[in-house]
Design goal:
The chain is of the alpha/beta class. The protein has two domains: 141 residues, Rossmann fold (3-Layer(aba) Sandwich), CATH 3.40.50.2020; 61 residues, Ybab, Chain: A, CATH 3.30.1310. 35% of the residues lie in helices and 20% in strands. The chain contains seven helices and eight strands. A five-stranded parallel sheet has the order 2-1-6-7-8. Strands 3-4-5 form a three-stranded antiparallel sheet, sandwiched between helices. Strand 7, helix 6 and strand 8 form a beta-alpha-beta unit. Helix 1 packs across helix 2. 41% of the residues are buried.
Length: 224
């Protein structure tokens, strides 16, 4: 068993990322399971921690079919799957209607987890996106594409375990990928943890509370 739990995975992942210490990185976690992993990484790198919340935009009659995704981060970013939209003949009205519902859910989750904390500005900085593992890679892909649109200096994906095929595809989206264990036949991510119990909302809030919030801009636009 590679990892005892998410905290153990985070500490081991942080050791693999120690070269980024002192380079003023930002760590972004995919909630909920990615948060305890990312919190250990951020603590070891002395980096701020924020969330990147991804919601699938499911087709009207087939919610499991992703016609896109919406990702938060200050101004939410929409990633469209044009092939699915075209083949399923999805109208812009239907796409926008479902997108608005998912945006509302993202706003609700960000308030639940972060309260009034402002998103951390990532433009021009090294950004490390962290999750507890990658199976299909769909959520990871949306998170990376949206984060790229926020113009980081360097985009890094860091995970403890992943499916080899999904990991290979993720390398097209990130400048650097750090994965401690990858398997051709992954199965469920939880198989690689002794304890893979669900991360609660309370645990997410507690982990984020360990890190100071982003500075608020003053009336002239400068941060204080």
């Amino acid at each position: 068993m590679p990892f005892r739990d998410r905290l153990d995975a985070g500490r081991k992942l942080a050791a693999a990322l120690k070269g980024f210490a002192g380079q003023n990185p930002v760590v972004l976690a995919l909630p909920r399971g990615g948060v305890p992993v990312a919190a250990e990484v951020a603590a070891q790198l002395h980096a701020p921690l924020d969330l990147v919340i991804v919601r699938k935009i499911g087709a009207p009659m087939q919610p499991e079919l992703a016609m896109g995704a919406v990702v938060d981060g200050g101004a939410p970013i929409i990633v469209r799957n044009e092939d699915v939209i075209r083949q399923a003949m999805i109208s812009e009205v239907d796409f926008n209607r479902i997108c608005e519902l998912e945006l509302a859910e993202i706003a609700s989750r960000r308030r639940r987890y972060l309260g009034e904390r402002l998103p951390i500005e990532v433009k021009g900085r090294i950004v490390i996106v962290v999750d507890d593992g990658i199976a299909t890679g769909a959520t990871t892909k949306a998170a990376l594409r949206a984060t790229r649109m926020r113009k980081p200096k360097k985009l890094v994906l860091a995970v403890p375990v992943a499916a080899s095929d999904s990991l290979s595809k993720s390398k097209r989206e990130a400048d650097k990928v750090i994965c401690l264990e990858d398997y051709e036949y992954l199965g469920a991510i939880g198989l690689y943890y002794s304890d893979f119990s669900q991360t609660s909302d309370e645990e997410v809030v507690e982990a984020l509370a360990r890190f100071p919030p982003a500075a608020k801009p003053d009336k002239k636009g400068a941060v204080s």
